[in-house]
Amino acid sequence: TSFVVGFAIEEQERAQSTTGDPRRYDLEARDAAVGEGAPLVRAAARVPGDADAQFARQLEIILTGIATCFAGPNARA
């Protein structure tokens, strides 16, 4: 899926950036670029966690949504 590919690319970019340019993912610079109007986006960058666990949880959310669309009386064909 696009999610899987995008997640993998982002993780590779983060790993490579920390060795090449550690300022690339600087939270203060990111906050300034995002602005005050997006507090949840700003907060999301500070959520600690294991990348593998985050991937598994986010994929579960996507798959649950897909399963919901194809189950029950409101199933979409």
From TrEMBL:
InterPro entries (alphabetical): Repressor_TetR_C, Tet_transcr_reg_TetR-rel_C_sf
Gene3D superfamilies (alphabetical): Tetracycline Repressor, domain 2
Superkingdom assignment: Bacteria
Pfam families associated with the record: TetR_C_1
Keyword Transcription regulation: yes
Ranges for domain Tetracycline repressor TetR C-terminal: 2-68
Record's keyword terms, sorted: Transcription, Transcription regulation
GO biological process, one term: negative regulation of DNA-templated transcription
Keyword Coiled coil: no
SUPFAM superfamilies: Tetracyclin repressor-like, C-terminal domain
Protein name: TetR/AcrR family transcriptional regulator C-terminal domain-containing protein
Annotated source species: Candidatus Microbacterium stercoravium
